[in-house]
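Q: Hi! First time doing this. I have a protein sequence and I read that you can turn it into a structure. Is that right? Here it is:
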Amino acid sequence: MLCFACQSTIGADDNWCAQCGAAVAKRVDPDSEQRFVTILRADVVDSTGLVADLDPEEAVSRLEPALAAMRGAVRQFGGIVSKELGDGLAAVFGAPIADDNHAPLACHAAIELVRRVAGLGDPGLQVRVGLHSGRVVAYMVASEYSKVYEIGGAAQHLAARLEAAAEPNQVYASEACQKLAEGNVQFEFLGRRQLKGFSEALPIYRVTGATDVSSWRVRRARSVARFVNRLNEIALLRRLAQDAGPNRQTALLIGDPGIGKSRLVHEFVDELTREGWLPFHAECSPNLQGAPFSTLKALMLSILEGTAADTDGLTSLTGIQRSAIDAVLDRPISDPEWGELEPHARGRAISEASCAILESLVVRRRTVILIEDLHWIDRASETVMAALASLQVPGLLVLLTSRPIGIPDWVARCNAEIAALRSLGEDAGREMLDDILGRSANMADLKSRVVLHTASVPLFIEEVCRSLKDRGVLRGHWGDLALARPVGELGIPSSIQGVIAARLDRISKEERSLLQIAAALGPIRQNLCCAM
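A: Yes, that's right. Below is the predicted 3D structure, encoded as structure tokens:
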């Protein structure tokens, strides 16, 4: 062991460093684990110059507003502050609970961090941020006075170097972070730079902005395969659409990320739209869980856009109901009666107005509402969505998608048809690979390996094939690829490591250990063990 302060050697039983007297941090749980995460490092620019002439209490007071803003931004987007450094902090996204959106969330947090510090109105407080996605070893440590979730490995050093290289009020990101967040976040390539401690110049990106587009939209833009199979699920949705009425009008599709929920419901909604149904759509976002009515706002904007030429639904509202919709859409409200309402009465008016608009539309035309990623819905919108899904009107179909965890209780109360989405069958997986790789006979062995390696999960199939193409194993155009060199290991692309980690987090520690042993043994030894 080495002292964190002076790097002197420390004995296993020592509580204090013999050289500098610093307390020794010791692991609480000896079981460390590898995690694929995004690390955020931030600090105040020229903090030494800001506090050089101040006494200790004044120095702390000078920097504390910036540190408080940093903490708030990190926590807003689900990050964990792993270490505070006096004038900055280190934070981790995607641990201790895995999250496949760790890179976009870290980028959003970095942008919010810079915004919050700038909003303090103190020109002397400027920050710089570094972001990097990579593998770390994570564990809990305890000192004399606290416990800390610590991370170790080269990844944290690269995040620190990016932070040091960043200009004031700028966010610099590594190529690994850029690749994972691309589509959700906008970047500017700054070229390759030599960073302290790294032998080669590394590509650096500056974060320029971020949006709240869903994972489905990002993946759809990258998709290279057509929609295949899912005949049973389409038949279920088709039956619900035909019988849409007061008794059963809501369907919930449950499945792990990458299993194909969004692709399925979008394909089906497109079918209904061609048949004359009126479609409305909203996506719940992990970035907006703390923003009241964010999901309802997206739905209202979809309705207003889809019915721009038909204003009967809005003109039939009462004055209070119109003010309620204006409040959801962040429009100015001049009605004094609205200002006098208590929060509970405002929430009820918003729910009643939303139901009234939808009922006025369904009366004239069959309507389908699609709410994606229900597990990320904000609490304020949840109450309204429960009311919309429970409307007793024929001609309305409500489609919901969700991961297995985080399903609201009201889904069961509204008599929803619930279907769990599984992986594609082997035949459907090969059909998807025919679309991606082509039908060349020399691809047969690779297709078999990919189907086995990915368990026919659609996202995994696409990302493994994309990884092979990026590595130069495959060359050509999608749908007509050729082997350029031996395949070797298929590997696990970084884009799906978070998805797999999130699945593993849902099982017990004992089950996870058993899976790790089985993975180390391999299929042949597993069979021998089972035989014994």
